[in-house]
Amino acid sequence: MKGLKILGTGRCLPDKVVTNDDMRAFVDTSDEWIRTRTGIQTRHFCAEGESTASLGVKAARLALERAGISPEDLGACVGCTCSADSAAPTVASTIQRDLGLPKHIPYFDLNAGCSGFLYGLHVTRGLLLQSDKPYALLVGAETLSRVMNFQDRGTCVIFGDGAGAVVVKLEEEAPYAYTLGAEGGDDVIYIGGYGSKEPYIHMEGQKTFRFAVEMVPWCIHELLGQSGLKLEDIDWFVLHQANKRIIDHVAKKLGMPGERFYQNIAHYGNTSAASIPIALDEMAEQGLLKRGQKLLCVGFGAGLTWGGALLEW
């Protein structure tokens, strides 16, 4: 079975850092209130002149440089976002233009909320199976600060802006398993669409927590069942960075050491489809990832959607 191997990563965070104390200018909150409920201490917000696409372009450039491949060998480029700057052009097509990538391959965005990166991985693999090119570029990019209601402390303190990118290669015998799903509804997490009077993020925190702590372990066991592996065989669990309490709860429920579950939510907040590729880039930069390691990634969020993938570094 042909699986995906990650060859290079990149990330881009806006320069503007917003602390929990800074959030008090917008809403009745405190550093203690935010940290104890979410684990978040700071997040990044875009400034004038920055956009979802511009963050994605910078992250993609780094991932391509670190992968050390020729852009001519790319078979696809997929953008994952629920906060695109416009319906068209897409983030992916802007990346093509700004980086001068080859024109005659697919460039498009997909939206599966915070599960977008996992959906993107499986779509990317499918595209490569039909391509004569071995590599693909996958970018998660979000500017959620621009779709937040800064009078709603249940959401505005949680989300941040950023982008992460990976270059993957389709390889024979590379371990691969996936799970994707959705339960349609607009009563737990949703963003008002075009023309909406309230084009903001809405989230029911308790319902989201209950959904996540049930669905994430289910996804993990599903992936292990497909691959024939055990929890102990996984080197790193890289979950969507939505809430520290969710990640800690999942680790405890599985009986696994918390150190095997990478966390960076304290610094970035919830960056939706960008959170997992941002985490992967940080891990690579810190030397935590070694060739041949097995990574199990799981995302969940608006839709409601969920997704998981077993990959090799």
TrEMBL record:
Natural source organism: Candidatus Intestinimonas pullistercoris
Keyword Heme in annotation: no
Residue ranges of every copy of the Beta-ketoacyl-[acyl-carrier-protein] synthase III N-terminal domain listed in the record: 108-174
Pathway note: Lipid metabolism; fatty acid biosynthesis
Pfam families in alphabetical order: ACP_syn_III, ACP_syn_III_C
Domain notes: The last Arg residue of the ACP-binding site is essential for the weak association between ACP/AcpP and FabH.
Active site per the UniProt annotation: 114, 240, 270
Chief location of this protein within or outside the cell: cytoplasm
Enzyme Commission number: 2.3.1.180
Reactions catalysed according to its record: malonyl-[ACP] + acetyl-CoA + H(+) = 3-oxobutanoyl-[ACP] + CO2 + CoA
Domain Beta-ketoacyl-[acyl-carrier-protein] synthase III C-terminal: 225-313
Protein name: Beta-ketoacyl-[acyl-carrier-protein] synthase III
Family per similarity comment: Belongs to the thiolase-like superfamily. FabH family.
